Every structure is written in structure tokens, then in C-alpha cells.
Input
Amino acid sequence: MAPLHQYLLLSALLFGIGLAGVLTRRNGLITLMGIELMLNAANLNFIAFWRHSPNPEAIEGVLLTMFAIGVAAAEVAVGLALVIAIYRRYRSVNLDEVDQLKG
Amino acid sequence: MAAVTYLELLKLGGSEVLLVLAGLVVLLVDLAVMRDEPRQNRMLLAGAISAVGCFAAGLWALQDGITGRAFAGMLVIDRASQLVKVVLLMMTAATVALSVQGRFTRHVGEYFSLLLFSTVGMMLMVSTENILLLFVALEIASLSLYILTAFNEENPQADEAALKYFLFGGVAAAFLLFGLSVLYGLTGSLDLREIGAVLGQRGVDAGVAVAVVLVLVGFGFKVAAVPFHLWAPDAYVGAPTPVAALVASGSKVAAFFLLGKVLSTGFAEVAGSAAWHGVLSGWAPVLAVMACFSLLLGNLAAIAQKRLKRLLAYSAVGHAGYMLVGAMALAGATDRGRALAMVVFYAATYGFTTIGAFGVAAAMERAGESDRIDGFAGLSSRAPVMSFCLMIFLLSLAGIPPLVGFAGKFFLFGSALAAGPGLGLVWLVGFAIAMSAVALFYYLGVLKQAYVVPAGERAGTLTVQVSVILTLAVLTAVVLLLGLYPGLLLDPLTRALAVGM
Output
């Protein structure tokens, strides 16, 4: 079993990559992927903490991950629907071209 | 952990079950029976079913003797949570009433059922002390609101507004989940009370600080506090106006109640202090910075706005600042329940007032005008009743006695001052009071258009829908009544929370 800190480094890295993707990429779909990476970094954390906890019989960490995966799936469904709606109106998923609301 | 039978569980979550049933019935009836009817009839029937659902759920929540704590704090039903649920249901009912004569969507069943589902999310938010259900409930409420924002067919910018709301919300949810995972790693528990106990022994170290800041980012988005407010103006303008009203009211009440619970049970011992010359690390300084910038930016940016909904959006950011000042009292107060009651009272009364102001914007749009503030010229002669309601709402938002906004601010600032240590928070409260003077300027700007500037030559009498004017009248009565007798809501809240904490 790999030591805990390696998991934590990996999840911090994933979170950072996801956040960088959200902040720098202008494509709506890639932004969605970034959000998914960030959520999964948190999931990895939960699993790692559960595996290394003093009593792994308490499966709370795994439980939360299951729910988080479900929520993430629902979020992708909503996000993709919105991206499709945007594409229909603007013929583009580039977020820089979607800027009618200002202020 | 005491075992809970299914029957008891149904009883504990009765309000939520009733509301989910109402949402499904709305979907089914609209799809099966009303598909070929004219839109107006479909809206009326779906709205009626939703209102009945809200009423039934509210009655269930008002029953005596339903209390309990099931599954490691997943479902915590007490007097306080039931009371806040009733407030949330009233807000949803007002939103439904503002929607029924609207023309913004053809998808009637989906619209009303999503309104109810988002309310279920908010109701679960106020009845949990477990970070699993905290996250899930927050997402139920948020996801429904993202979709509802895109429902506005009259406004071509609705899709853009919804996408912005969604992207900010998604990132904030990821921050929140990451923070919760660190919290779980540090404490080995999902129950906020156990988390609070472990953090109490541990004190503030680097891990705790990371968890606290990440969780506050998630909540900062939900309550639209600076610097996580960027979605708010766009979402308020793009969304159907009743939905914007719900985002500004119900979602804010639920988020502040949940935030208060997290701060006073989970993070109780890692509060630190934001007192002048006495800053200690913890959540209090972080919250103080967010409160300060929300007050400053929200109120100053509102001055420049030319449209009512955008003005209300920035004023919502400013009001989030006031409520955060109130939440600061949870750090030092000896009586945490009372401090939380003040915050919830302010959030609830602000919610009722702002729904009213959005209702006026909805009525203007429905009458073929826009929500541009210069279009309000001569409103007092074109629609006297509505402009009177608007005056009450805006003066209450500005905090003029004897309206409820004044009572709310008075109690909120009083509780922040008393929390101390000593008079440590005077600087923050003084700043908040100065900013409410700024706020008076832009609210009066709207009223000047309505009452002083004469109407244009071609402007005739405005016709306002019956449902809208009735809702506005009820909300005006609530604002006046609670302003004169704040104890009607505040006393039960204080009593319920004093027991709960």
C-alpha cells in the first residue's frame, strides 16, 4: 500500500491541473473536464483517507465518494446540456465569444 | 447510532417527501392531461399543485413533536430546522405565485417541478449536520437552479447566464468537496459534531486552515460574497425573474443557515478572531475579509447600475456582506444560538423583501416594459399600488425604520458588537453602517424615478397581473408587520436555536 502522502500529492496535482484547465482554457467542454478533474481529486482524497484510517470498517469515505460520483455525473449532464444550448445559439463553444452580459 | 425505522424516517422527512411527490405530480399531470391545453391554463394548474405541495409540506413541518437525529447527523430535525423550512416554503410559494401568469417558458411541468426540487435541496440543507448530505443537498439545490436559469425563452442571454452560473458553481462545488475531504482526513468522521470535537483538540494548523478556507470558498459562492460573486449579476439578469427571486432569497437563507451550523458546530473551536489589533488565525479573519469586500463592492457597484435586476444583484452581494458580519458573531458569542438566530432572521426578512422587489421587475417586464430604471419614471401615477409596494421594499432593503430591514440590521449589528472580545468588531460594524448609508443613495435613485420624475407622454396606465399584485401585497404586509413586531419571527427562532445548540 502506497503511503498516504503520495496519494495526497497526486490529488493535489490533479486538483491543480483541473483548476488550471478551468482558468486558462476557453473551450466550454475542456472547462467541464477541468471541473471533473477537481471533483475526482477530492474523491481520491476520500478513498485514500479511508484506506489509511485507523478503522477501515467504517466505510464513510467510500460512501461519500459514491455519492460524489453520482453528483458529478448529474453535473456533467446539466453542463453538457447547457453547452449544447450555447452551441445552438452561437455556433461555438468558445467562452470568449459568449459574452453578451457585461457589467 | 440509534437505529431508525422506515416509518420514523418517513415522518422525519415528511415535508421533503410531500414536496417531491408534488413535483412528480406536477410533471405527470402536465404531461398526461394538460399537454394540448393553452399555456395559461397549464401554468395555472401546475402553479396550483405546486402551491398545494408547499402548503402541505409547511403544515407537516409545523407539527409538534417531530424531532430526531438519524444516521450520524445526516438528518437532524429540530424546531429550528422546521421553522426555517416553513420560511423556505413560503418563499417558494411566493416564487410560484409570481410565475403563474408569466410567459417565459413553454415547459410548464418541468419548470414548476424543478422549482420544487430545488426547494427540497434547500430543505435538506437546513436539516443536516453531516458533510455527505451537506454536499448532496447543496448540489440538489444548485443543479436545479442552474437549469431553471436557462428556462427564460424571452431572454436570449439566458443560456449564457446559466452557463456562467454553472461554471462558477461547479468550480465552487469542487473546492467545497476538496475541503470536506481534507476535513474527513483530519478527523475521520463525516458528522459535524464529531468533527468539531476533534478539531477542538487539534487547534488551528496548516491542514485545518486549508480545509476551512476551501469550505468557505464553496459557501462564499453560494451566498454570492466577494470575490465569488461574479456569477450573480449575470444570472439574475438572464434568469426568469421569479427564479432570480428564489436564487436571491431561498437559496441564500438555506446557505446561511447551513454555514452558521458548520461554523458553530464543526468549526466552533477554530474560529480565531478578527478583532482590531487582536487577529487570531481561524475562520473569523477570512470571513471578515469576505464581508468587508462584499459590503464595499456590492454597494459601490450598485450605484452605477441602470437596470433594476442588476441593481438588486449587486445589492444582494452587499446584503451577503451584512449577513457575514452577523455570522462573525458566531466566533466570539457566548450564546451561539442567539447569534445564528439573528443571521437567519436577517436572511429570511431580506429574502421576503427582495422577492417583492423582483416581483415588481417581473410585472414591468410582463407589461411589455423592461426593468430599466429610467423606465420607472412616473410609476406612481401609472401603477400606484405597485409603486407603493416597491417603495416599501426598497426602503426596507435600505434599512429605514419601521420596516423590517431596519429591525434586521439593528439586531444583526447588535449581536456582532456584543460578541466581542470587548468591542473588537466595532471597526467592521462601523464600516457596515457607513455602507448602508451608501446603499440608501441607489435605492432612493429608483424611488426618485417612480415618485418624482413625471411619466413620458406616451406612457399609459400599467396593467399588473392579479397574481403578481396579490403576492406583492402579501409581501408588503409581511415586511410591515415584521418591522413593527420582529418578535413574531425572531422569538420562535431564538427559542428554537437556543435549544438546538
Notes: Chain A has a mean pLDDT of 91. Helices of chain A lie at 4-24, 28-51, 60-90.
